[in-house]
Amino acid sequence: MKITLLTGKTFEIEEKSGLPLKVVQSSRCRRLSLRIDQKEKKAVLNLPPLCTVRRALQFVEANRGWIEKHLAEIPASRRFADGEEISLLGRPTTIRHCPGLKGGAVLEDGILKVSGEAAFLPRRVKDFIRRQAQAYLLELSKQKAALIGCRVNRVTIKDTKSRWGSCSTLDNINYNWRIALAPAEVIDYLAAHEVAHLKHRDHSRAFWTCVKNLSCCADSGRRWLKLNSRLLYAYE
Predict the structure, then answer these.
(1) How far apart, in whole angstroms, are the C-alpha atoms of residue 121 and residue 106?
(2) Which sign does the torsion angle of CA 176, 221, 235, 230 carry?
(3) What is the pLDDT of residues 19-44, one digit of tens each?
(4) Beta strand extents in 52-168 (DSSP E only)
């Protein structure tokens, strides 16, 4: 829910901060907080409804060093290219531009062959990865859900800005397509995390126990994602 600031100037904080900043004000927000939006390359300030512009700017200034440090660590944007080696659902894969090939993109023996004009290659690779992620994560989620006596209603692959996954009260699970570029153990952890929410809607001790029961590499997968998220978000 978007709320107009008391000053009536929605973007006043953004303009006065002198930083790449996006202000998000919500009636559900209880305290000032900051996070980094890897995709938009901005800091996001979560603002409570009754917070003044002055207080918000003081908070931003107090955290200026943290903001600048994390913004500087965001890698440059990347687009898939001919000859690039990627990890596709845990398997080493090399992208090859094959102009005369028909069928868009085909994976053969670790080679992702992409047809058409070179300008279309990044989009066709991304579309192929999303299709592969959809099939793989649907099956993996169903398998893990069965282990805890639950059922996944639907799996959707999305292009989210900061979340790797989510599980709704309707038992629908969403995944960020970029997770398909992570190591296999990281994908397994994320699937376990979202499936565990089918049974535990919070992040209680019981939830984390469930995650670890569903994935033997939960700790290492979670750690890798925390340390390397920005590398995956570099892909447009």
Answers:
(1) 12
(2) positive
(3) 999 888 888 888 999 998 877 889 99
(4) 85-88, 91-97, 105-108, 111-114, 154-158, 165-167
